[in-house]
Amino acid sequence: MDKPFYKRVLLKLSGEALQGKGSFGIDTDVLGRIADEVREVADLGVQLGIVIGGGNIFRGLQASSEGMERTSADYMGMLATVMNGLAMQHAFEGHGVATRVQSAIGVEEVTEPCVTRVALDHMKEGRVVIFVGGTGNPFFTTDTAACLRALEIRADVILKATKVDGIYDKDPVRHSDARFFQHIDYTEVMTRDLKVMDSTAISMCRDNNLPLIVFNLSKKGNIKDVVLGKQVGTRVGVAR
User: Is the confidence at residue 194, as pLDDT, over 80?
Assistant: First the structure.
C-alpha cells in the first residue's frame, strides 16, 4: 500500500472547478471524478479538509464592482459555497466517502457549525470535512478561508487545485513563453505579484510557515500523487 507523505491536508477547490466545461452551475460528472480521487486519498488514511469557493454560482467581488453593496454581495457568495458544499457531500457519500459539512455562517438546518475540535474529531474518525461559508466575514476570500482552516486543523500542507499545472510568471494560457516554477518562496510570490492567492492568504501562509502546493486538478490522479509526495505542480514554502 502507498504511504502518504502528508498525513493531514487542506484541499482548496474553486467553485469554477465544479462547473466543468460549462459557464455556470455544477457538473455532476466533475463532482463524481473528484469524489473518486478523494476516496483514494482517504483510503490511504489521510485526514482531509476541503474549502470550496462559490464562483460557479455567484461572485461577490464581481457583483460589488457592478454596483452591489460589498457586504451583501460577499454574503451571497458565502451562500453559494454552502450550495457547493452540499452538492459535494452528496457526491462524496455516493462514492463511499463519509463526509461532514461545516459552515462559518449559520445554516444549522443543513450543515454543522464550524468548530475546530469537532472537525478534528471527524477527520480522526476518517470523515472528510467540507468547510463552507468562507471565513464567515465579508471582505475575505475563500483562499484566506483555506489558510485559516488549514492553520486551525494544523494541516501539513494546503493543496490548491487549479486549471493549470502550477505557478507561472504569467498566464500560460495567453503566453506560450510563460515560465513554470517548480519551487518558489512566498516572498517571491508577493514581490512578483503572482496571482496564486490573494495577498492576505499568502501573508498568512508565509507568517505561519504553512506549505502550499499548486497543481492541476484536471489531471487524473494528481491529488493522490501530491499527497504521496511526488513532484506535481509548484511547491511554495516547501523544502526543495
Answer: yes
